[in-house]
TrEMBL record:
<feature type="domain" description="OmpA-like">
    <location>
        <begin position="91"/>
        <end position="208"/>
    </location>
</feature>
<protein>
    <submittedName>
        <fullName>OmpA family protein</fullName>
    </submittedName>
</protein>
<keyword id="KW-0998">Cell outer membrane</keyword>
<dbReference type="InterPro" id="IPR036737">
    <property type="entry name" value="OmpA-like_sf"/>
</dbReference>
<dbReference type="InterPro" id="IPR050330">
    <property type="entry name" value="Bact_OuterMem_StrucFunc"/>
</dbReference>
<dbReference type="Pfam" id="PF00691">
    <property type="entry name" value="OmpA"/>
</dbReference>
<dbReference type="InterPro" id="IPR006665">
    <property type="entry name" value="OmpA-like"/>
</dbReference>
<keyword id="KW-0472">Membrane</keyword>
<dbReference type="GO" id="GO:0009279">
    <property type="term" value="C:cell outer membrane"/>
</dbReference>
<dbReference type="InterPro" id="IPR006664">
    <property type="entry name" value="OMP_bac"/>
</dbReference>
Length: 209
């Protein structure tokens, strides 16, 4: 399990339950331990956002290895064909943030049946993409104590991991992180915002070589 460490520097614009994914770099949620993932160095790219129908593409003007671009195109095609919304973050490494978050009731790590079915469907598809790794980021709202929220976000991430493994995803391709209340996606000042923040986000890592 890859845990949050130290102070997390992030800038957020929190309005209602609007997503704030572009208030911070998704690179902030990449694993920090280079021994646990094949992509040890994570930079901070300058991002250009291009809106499209089923995705938000973030592009960096630097050449990509042919294999990485082919892998990315394959993933894009598969995600779009299934109607799954996503964001592509491109810097030193390519990442796909799935915007279909898994949400939870207060103080719960139980996953709803619709979310469970979606995760199993995702695992079935990603089992055909053997080089892609998944970072599972657990979060909470701010209604509990810090230590409790840390543990709760970890349990939520682990529950998602277990379901992906049930869908035949190898454990060696799954990495969890627990952020507690420290990376909200929405404002915690409203009930809808707190509901938005009780979540697990998934990020797909595309190898570049």
């Amino acid at each position: 399990m890859l845990k949050r460490f130290g102070a997390l520097s992030a800038t957020f614009i929190l309005v209602g339950c609007q997503s704030t994914n572009f208030g911070y770099s998704m690179l902030d949620v990449a694993p920090e331990d280079s021994q646990l993932l094949r992509h040890p160095n994570w930079g901070e790219p300058q991002l250009q956002v291009i809106e499209e129908r089923t995705e938000t593409r973030i592009v960096i003007g630097q050449p990509r290895p042919t294999h990485a671009l082919s892998q990315l195109q394959s993933l894009e095609h598969g995600l779009a064909r299934r109607g799954w919304h996503y964001q592509i973050l491109s810097g030193q490494y390519l990442m796909i943030h799935l915007t279909e978050g898994i949400h939870f009731k207060t103080n719960s790590s139980e996953i709803s049946e619709p979310s469970r079915r979606w995760l199993l469907s995702l695992a079935e598809y990603l089992s055909t993409q053997p080089e892609v790794e998944i970072v599972i980021n657990g979060h909470t709202d701010d209604s509990g104590r810090n230590r409790y929220n840390d543990g709760l976000s970890e349990r939520r991430a682990q529950m998602v991991k277990q379901i992906l493994m049930q869908g035949k995803m190898p454990i060696t391709r799954l990495f969890t992180r627990a952020f507690g209340e420290y990376l909200p996606s929405c404002s915690n000042q409203t009930n809808s915002g707190r509901t938005c923040n009780r979540r697990v986000d998934l990020v797909l890592l595309v190898p570049q070589r």
